[in-house]
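Query structure, 149 tokens:
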């Protein structure tokens, strides 16, 4: 309720002391005087604020203040989002060009595509097979097992 840091208990103590010191007969007059004084203080504070605002506007500080606020009022997520979007667009265009390029060359020259592979990716030439014996070799005798032969 009150903005000047006093609790309700402290206000009650102040009211009780004021009632005892001033007396019940003069208390309403004193409260009216305090009310008028507070009203005058508020009026002077408002007038001071208006004069200060007009001086700022005349000096052009208002525009500088807005510029500084706009410079400091940034969001990290928006900046990252912009950078990520640009990077994704670049990557997307690179991938599309890579996909489209082999499809066009394969349609134009299918034989040439097979010979253009680097040596590591090319199929190795078939090595001549060694001459295999026509009959399988007899199994080697195992130790500890006797055979009838």
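Result returned for the query:
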């Amino acid at each position: 309720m009150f903005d000047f840091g006093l609790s309700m208990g402290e206000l009650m103590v102040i009211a009780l002391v004021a009632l005892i010191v001033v007396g019940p007969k003069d208390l309403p007059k004193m409260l009216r005087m305090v009310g008028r004084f507070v009203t005058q203080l508020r009026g002077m504070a408002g007038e001071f604020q208006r004069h200060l605002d007009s001086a700022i506007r005349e000096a052009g500080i208002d525009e500088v203040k807005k510029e500084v606020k706009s410079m400091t009022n940034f969001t990290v997520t928006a900046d990252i989002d912009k950078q990520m979007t640009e990077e994704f667009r670049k990557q997307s265009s690179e991938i599309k060009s890579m996909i489209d390029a082999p499809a066009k060359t394969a349609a134009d020259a299918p034989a040439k595509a097979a010979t253009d592979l680097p040596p590591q990716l090319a199929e190795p030439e078939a090595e001549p097979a060694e001459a295999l014996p026509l009959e399988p070799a007899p199994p080697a005798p195992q130790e500890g097992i006797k055979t009838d032969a």
